[in-house]
Specification:
An 8-stranded mixed sheet has the order 3-2-1-4-6-5-7-8, with helices on both faces. The protein contains 11 helices and 8 strands. Helix 8 (about 200-210) runs parallel beside helix 9 (about 230-255) and helix 10 (about 260-285) runs antiparallel to helix 11 (about 285-315). It is of the alpha/beta class.
């Protein structure tokens, strides 16, 4: 346990036979349960998981820190590949069933530093947030190792996710080092969470709809010999379409609040005005085209006002928490 809170770590793994044992073994001792999900790997990942789990569970005494679980490491295997979001969803649902107070996520590739896990879970334990995520873009030293192409893709998705989720103060949405409270697991519609790599973006929208507080904390990421399973050529377009869908769902869900309704109306009118005027400009003669372009700029201005109001509407439920460097 960690300051009277039960803590779990979800470890999604797909073809991580070379890393998964070390990841499991280095999870901090205060963690009560480790849900390791093999997402139908084609290598020896499952064998490594079960071997390591057996060794650790055999060594754990009956007292196990007072949490009362019969196993510390819980191996789970998917019958078909569901994607990293599907693996995390499986772990989340098990943690919710076990009524774990704080559930973190650490990738099976060893990129996430286990020594800073307390930094990720502290805001939840202290009652400052319902969901916490690492952010590699806050401190220059934390993202200097990030490949340039990843930085470009990350910043594009950061901008799109800010708009879609309404968490305008949150960055680096692709960072998977996160923690979530039991309350958020119960209220954020986890069963419907996106299962492709865009799960982290989709989850932020779901957290906003259920009005959960989200916090960013500085966090490094260790790039080593692991191989990314992401193809940005398909990843960004696919996630962008998902974000558009969830963005519209979020706006519609917030229509019952006067400010939320105002944001919805402004977004819709601004988008319609901008697109409609731009199309008219392309079809019109020179003079009419100039007028249409001016109208299009008016639509852009309305969209900017909508974004400002959206930020104000959600200001109190997203924050950045500075932490002391170790």
């Amino acid at each position: 346990m960690y300051t009277d809170h039960t803590v779990a770590v979800v470890v999604p793994a797909y073809n991580e036979a070379g890393f998964i044992r070390e990841v499991i073994e280095t999870v901090p001792e205060f963690v009560d349960r480790v849900y390791v999900i093999d997402d139908c790997s084609t290598d020896d990942t499952w064998e490594k998981i079960t071997e390591t789990a057996t060794e650790i569970n055999t060594a754990v005494t009956a007292t196990d820190g007072g949490a009362g679980f019969d196993q510390r490491v819980v191996p789970i295997q998917h019958g078909e590949n569901r994607g990293v979001g599907g693996a995390i969803k499986t772990g989340y649902l098990r943690a919710r069933d076990d009524e774990i107070d704080v559930t973190a996520v650490m990738g099976g590739d060893g990129q996430m530093d286990p020594t800073v896990l307390d930094r990720i879970i502290d805001p939840i334990v202290d009652g400052e947030a319902d969901y916490v995520k690492g952010n590699r873009l806050i401190n220059d030293a934390d993202h200097e190792q990030m490949p340039r192409f990843r930085q470009i893709g990350n910043r594009i998705l950061t901008a799109l996710t800010k708009i879609a989720s309404g968490y305008w103060r949150i960055g680096d949405p692709q960072m998977g080092y996160t923690a979530i409270s039991l309350t958020a697991l119960r209220e954020a519609d986890i069963e419907e969470m996106y299962e492709f790599y865009g799960y982290c973006n989709d989850l932020l929208v779901r957290l906003n709809v259920s009005r959960q507080t989200v916090a960013d904390v500085p966090s490094p990421l260790n790039y080593g010999d692991e191989q990314s399973h992401i193809s940005y050529l398909t990843y960004i377009p696919r996630v962008s379409l998902m974000l558009l869908r969830t963005f519209l769902w979020r706006l519609w869900s917030g229509r019952h609040s006067p400010l939320g309704l105002s944001v919805l109306v402004l977004y819709v009118s601004g988008a319609v005005g901008t697109v409609g005027s731009a199309i008219a400009a392309l079809r019109a003669a020179d003079t009419e085209a100039e007028n249409s372009l001016k109208s299009s700029l008016g639509g852009v201005f309305v969209l900017v006002i909508a974004m400002v109001l959206d930020g104000l509407f959600n200001w109190s439920i997203n924050t950045r928490i500075d932490t002391e460097e170790d």
